[in-house]
Amino acid sequence: MPAITANVAQLPIRLRNFFARYPPQIYSSLAAPRPTPPAGQASTEQPLPSPYTPDRDAKGAQKEDRGAFSVARSMLWDSRSAPNPFLPKKIYSTGKWMGPRYGLRQQADLVKLAAKYNVEALLPPGPKSTEYKAAKLAERGLRIKGTGIGQKVKGHKWERTMEARLEDRRKAMMEMPEMIRLWKQRGHGRGWRQWPKR
Question: Can you give the pTM of this predicted structure?
Answer without folding.
Answer: 0.57
